[in-house]
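Exercise 3.2. Students should predict the tertiary structure of the chain below and write it as structure tokens, then compare their answer with the key that follows.

Predict this chain's 3D structure.
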Amino acid sequence: MQESENKKIKTFEQKDWINKNIYYYKDTGSYAWIFHRISGIALILYLFLHIWSISPLTEGKHAFEKKMSLYSGTLFSIIEWFLFAFVLFHALNGVRIILIDWAEGARYHKQLFYYTIVIGVIMFIAMGIIMFSHIIF
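Answer key:
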């Protein structure tokens, strides 16, 4: 009888769970996990946009070129640049995760996260220079 009382199913209120997680102290690993999920969701959304964008291929060359002309402005170049940021972070963080899992990188996960950010920022700026060199120079 006493043993069954100890094995009660733990319950929790969802509001309490949300508050605990929102205000929970987050370290570099937590932020890496959050940003990895956000970048993954952004890439999935982009995939659907990409499929929708190339769908006029079934309607012929003129319809496709008309759709692509919408994406030739500076605004879409900037959006593409930030798409590159999402791809870059997701890829670099994926490499970081592999190093942590396979190369005993757990000891260095904070340093690997900072390297990921520094390398990512350098590559992001370099891609911006390449993409906008016709405007800059």
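Discussion points: DSSP finds seven helices and no strands in the chain. Residues 74-102 form the longest helix (29 residues).
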